[in-house]
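Two folds, back to back.
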Amino acid sequence: MTSVLLVDDEALVRTGLRLILETADDITVVGDADDGRAALDAVVRHRPDVVLMDLRMPVLDGVAATSALREREHSPAVIVLTTFNTDEDVFRALAAGANGFLLKDTPPTELLRAVRLAAAGDAILSPSVTRQVITRFTGDDGSRRRDAAARLENLTGREREVLIEIGRGAANADIASSLHMSEATVKSHVTHLFEKLAATNRVQLAIAAFRAGLVD
């Protein structure tokens, strides 16, 4: 059972998210909060697997709350919620350690899938907007690309292949299928990528792939 904490300053949004999530047999909503400060306290009380975090809230916004959670040991996965995929706060939240983001008009089936993926350690970056997100982080500087490519020199061939798939927004199960390996083997490669690239989440791995020019 995946436990979820809802964080949004609008009660109507929290109610709507709860109704969608509670249609799933494997997901439970353990609590909610209406600002970032209350969210930090609620995480201590409820210990959720996943936090759905609004970006713009009073007292403490979603970016600051995400950053504070990431500084804690055994922090939950964080998916930030936004109205626009070009929102500057989206990029700040990803840099702060969010596992990904969803638009607030995301279809219910995609919301459920995103929560499951986040709980499993996958990044939530839609392939259609991944390039836009990464470009904002990296730019197109040639020397930066060469430096990024040099960081990958100690990767094995399989690790490089897995990194490319992560850059394309693929989940572990999809990578296992496309590269003809078990999901356990994929997870092992991802763990090695975290260690070798000093990354803390899959978003950072995706950024590394794009910076090095492995993904168009």
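---
second:
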Amino acid sequence: MIPSSPPSLPFPEFEPGWVWLAGAGPGDPGLLTLHAWHALRHADVIVYDALVGPDILGMAREGCRLEFAGKRGGKPSPKQPDISNRLVQLARDGLRVLRLKGGDPFVFGRGGEEALTLVEHHIPFRVIPGITAGIGGLAYAGIPVTHRDTNHAVTFMTGHSASGLVPDTIDWAAVARGSQVIVLYMALKHLRTIAGNFISAGRPADQAVAIVTNATLPNQHVLETTLERCADDVAANGIEPPALVVVGDVVLLRPALDWIGAMSHRAGD
């Protein structure tokens, strides 16, 4: 039985009429923050994204209402202004509103857009950071985002703009030259174009790439490939979103640092 909260921790009060914008982490329920767990136990309504799994939603208090507001590429999805305005409406109804997002709400999660709408309508809110998939998901794949002997910079990028196309405001040459490691969210649809842009900008065609699907979950899968082969390998393996793409020599550390794979081998001994 899950207690309502650890008695020794002074949690903030979740007041009626407030919206809490919270990150649920990359998938594994154990990666929730305590503040996010506290919010789940006290919210009147949870407006949640497609990447928030049932195990996390199952932590909500009895009687809490769940409203799905997930976006999936290429599929009918709620429009962002409608989601933002729904948060305003629920708060004005005097409810404790938890806006629960996969990863971190301010890392390619449109949390900033929703927060600005709340500010516009004078709705009080709190932000609860979450572990973003570009860090936590790669750690579960045995890939460190930074390593002293490999890189001193990392760039997080989105693979498509608000229009659904490859972002046209990115200086591909600057990123290719300036960041030894590049982590791409939502990049599978345009992976061939993105990989081509980086190769044209000077990245080695044989540079190591990993694609991580269902990061931190029991069905996590990691495909190791190269920049020039990654799009073909994704297609050949039938890989579908959600997925992370990481480009850089940190991928080469995975054979030594794949701790989940090591546990599986020990369990099979």
